[in-house]
Every structure is written in structure tokens, then in C-alpha cells.
Amino acid sequence: xxxxxxxxxxxxxxxxxxxxxxxxxxxxxxxxxxxxxxxxxxxxxxxxxxxxxxxxxxxxxxxxxxxxxxxxxxxxxxxxxxxxxxxxxxxxxxxxxxxxxxxxxxxxxxxxxxxxxxxxxxxxxxxxxxxxxxxxxxxxxxxxxxxxxxxxxxxxxxxxxxxxxxxxxxxxxxxxxxxxxxxxxxxxxxxxxxxxxxxxxxxxxxxxxxxxxxxxxxxxxxxxxxxxxxxxx
Length: 233
Description:
Blueprint: H1 2-16, H2 45-51, H3 62-74, H4 86-101, E1 117-122, E2 127-132, E3 135-142, E4 155-158, E5 161-167, E6 174-182, E7 185-189, E8 204-206, H5 208-217, E9 223-227
Parallel strand pairs: 1-9, 7-8
Antiparallel strand pairs: 1-2, 2-3, 4-9, 5-6, 6-7
């Protein structure tokens, strides 16, 4: 009996290590205890200090490290040792660029304005919004799209299937408020930060609040336009 239980445990361990297919997002891993703070000054020290409202002197301090570490922990950036490195600054820089967009996300006119209601996804800025012609209906909101090797595919698409309580039948991964627009790729909510690297397995992740709003505003047959290129892909 003990041998059978051990074999089952091993099998479960192997299954748990499989990579989710395109479009699925794994649940957030349990929060890990923060490691000891690093005393090293990072290459983006001054920029990170300024972003966090710390004294900008370009020198790592214990207070600097704790502030950086808290930011890293909040957004799932690893290792979360308080080092002002390229990944941490990349997230902050993206946040600043998103904020600069304001209420005019289609300023460049790249998302079609002749389709009526359409959901736009700008991969470069990791933003999405819904517009009707030139009128902004909702957003822009931050999103989390496909990581390197699992990129969210670009182009004009249509929502073809919606499932408010969708769960992967293979991996049992919940994908609430799913609205599929390209194969296994869909809008859906997740329980991780929108700035959690490296990204999804192809879906356009959203917060629950935004995914619910998209669910109420969109329907089967509505257009979706995905363009740009996610940093790091």
C-alpha cells in the first residue's frame, strides 16, 4: 500500500510540473519570504529611487533596499532581494509609459476606428481599451500578455466564444470571464499583478474588475485588434 501511495505522489509531482498550454495562465505561486536585502548598488539605482520617492543619491541604503524589495514582492519580481536591476526598472518604466498615455490610448490611430465597437490591445505598452469609432468606451487598463515563446498573436480578430466560469479541462486552471478571440487566446482575469514577469502563455490577462467590465461591454462577433510587440519578446 505504501509503494502505491509513493508512486501516486511521484506521478502527481510530474503532472504538476507540466507547462500550461497556450492561452492558459497558472495560478499565482504562494508568496515566498523575502530574502535578505542586498547592499549592492544596482545599475538603475537613481531611476528606481526616483520612482519610489526615495532620496536620489545613487547609493543603496537599507531603506532603499526595503522599498525596492517591497515593490518586487508586490509584483512577483524575482529575486526580490531589493536590487535595482533591469527587470525591476523595466516594470517601473512600463508603468510610467502607461501613465503617460492618459485618456488617449489610440493617439497613434493604429487601432481601427471604422469597426464600431472594438477591443484594442497594445502589446508594446501592455494596455487595452474598448472604443466605438473614435469614442473611448472603457480604459485604458494595464494587461499582461504572452511571454517570450508564447506571444499573444497580432492582427484583427473577433470574439467567437465566451465562458464566464471557464476552467481548463486538462490542467484545471480557472480562467474567469474568458472571451476567446484567437484559438486558445482570450481575455480573462487572473489573481496576479499585471506587471508580474514574464507574462502569460498567450492570453490577455486582466484584473477581475476589468475582466468583468469587458464581459459586460463585449459580445460574440465583436472585433479585437492586437498590435505592437511586448518588451522582451
